[in-house]
Design a protein that fits this description.
It is a single chain. About 85% of the residues lie in helices and about 0% in strands. The longest helix is centred in the first third of the chain and has 40 residues. It has one domain. The N and C termini lie far apart (about 55 Å). The protein is mainly α.
Length: about 240
């Protein structure tokens, strides 16, 4: 009798846990889907960073001797700098629309982890800006005559580095919600924090082109990504709460 009651209690608890996890997954997927639809509906929000990336990279051959040797030398730092600045362009609108229509306030009222929902919004931002920047960097690297080893490393470093830029940038975007023109403040806040990512990303590409080991730089980037995944959603949640109050 006692064993039957214990089995029934475990069965009910497991069913309740599965139901809560299913509901949480459904809400997270809804937040992700909504933000992606809004991002691609507002075409300038995700096209402007890509246009800037192409324009910035296209100006490099015009400002120096456009020989393949010279272009390949400056390609890693130029593309990484362009990718970093491009990511800044889309950060100002990361939470702005939700702040203006009251959606952010609702995130604190529903019975689900607010930090997880905010992470889904940051993930949607990366899918609509960071991932296209990463993919577009490959043909731009070919245009600048970057060697094959450098292109592969560039792709990997941007694939790891652009989520870091989005996660760190979300904190600045949350702090600048109440400002009418927060773009300049975002740049002042975030550029010093972006410098280590730029150094490690571009340095990895230069090391790969030179035939040196890149495992150390990639490990540091991966460690930074894990640290940002664990901390920045909570810090962003606190920053949004400050802006709301």
């Amino acid at each position: 009798m006692l064993m039957r009651q214990l089995t029934r209690w475990i069965y009910l608890k497991v069913n309740l846990l599965v139901f809560k996890l299913t509901e949480l997954f459904r809400v997270c997927f809804h937040v992700l889907k909504r933000d992606l639809i809004l991002s691609f509906t507002q075409k300038f929000d995700w096209l402007n960073p890509l246009f800037f990336l192409v324009l910035f990279t296209s100006l490099i051959p015009l400002s120096m001797d456009p020989s393949p040797e010279n272009l390949s030398k400056v390609a890693p730092s130029s593309i990484w700098t362009a990718a970093l600045l491009s990511s800044l362009l889309s950060l100002e609108t990361l939470f702005k629309r939700d702040f203006e229509d009251g959606t952010l306030e609702q995130l604190y009222l529903i019975p689900y982890p607010t930090s997880l929902l905010i992470f889904m919004k940051i993930f949607a931002h990366w899918l609509s800006s960071g991932l296209p920047i990463t993919l577009l960097s490959i043909p731009l690297a070919l245009m600048l005559f970057m060697p094959a080893d450098g292109i592969i490393t560039l792709f990997y470093t941007l694939l790891i580095g652009t989520p870091i830029l989005s996660l760190i940038g979300a904190i600045g975007a949350a702090l600048a919600l109440n400002l009418q023109r927060g773009g300049l403040l975002l740049a002042l806040l975030l550029l010093p924090l972006y410098i280590p990512v730029l150094i490690l990303g571009a340095g990895s590409v230069y090391a790969a082109v030179s035939g040196l080991a890149i495992s150390g730089q990639l490990a540091l980037l991966a460690a930074m990504l894990i640290g940002c995944l664990l901390t920045t959603p909570l810090m962003t949640m606190a920053s949004i709460r400050i802006s709301l109050t």
